[in-house]
Amino acid sequence: MSQEWQVICRVDDIPVLGARVVARAAKPDVAIFRNTENKVFALLDKCPHKGGPLSQGIVFGERVACPLHNWNIELPTGCAISPDEGCTQKFSLKVEEDQVYLDANELSTLAVEA
């Protein structure tokens, strides 16, 4: 299946060391993160631990700290840092000419089971 890219926002619309939430019909929503190097990542806005909103966490390097219990989640993979275990869904993303794109098919269908 070929990818259909959907424009979400501009890189500058995402706060540095923060996130922007992309609302969608298939809950939970998607969080798009930006670090100090302007790298952009997209994860399901749900910590694999207790379902905390990762979009409200603090970004450092290529990780985000869940605001509920401070689990560290790797932004490139969506997986928790050991000794914690579990992963949240990551989404295909591309950046072209300062525009952030997500795969429209993933955006409409992928969701991690509770």
TrEMBL record:
Transmembrane region(s): none
Any coiled-coil regions, as ranges: none
Domain Rieske: 5-102
UniProt keyword terms in alphabetical order: 2Fe-2S, Iron, Iron-sulfur, Metal-binding, Nitrate assimilation, Oxidoreductase
The UniProt record lists the keyword Metal-binding: yes
Keyword Ribonucleoprotein set for record: no
InterPro entries recorded: Rieske-like_NirD, Rieske_2Fe-2S, Rieske_2Fe-2S_sf
PANTHER family in the cross-refs: 3-PHENYLPROPIONATE_CINNAMIC ACID DIOXYGENASE FERREDOXIN SUBUNIT (PTHR21496:SF23), FERREDOXIN-RELATED (PTHR21496)
Protein name: Nitrite reductase small subunit NirD
Species annotation: Undibacterium umbellatum
Gene from which the chain derives: nirD
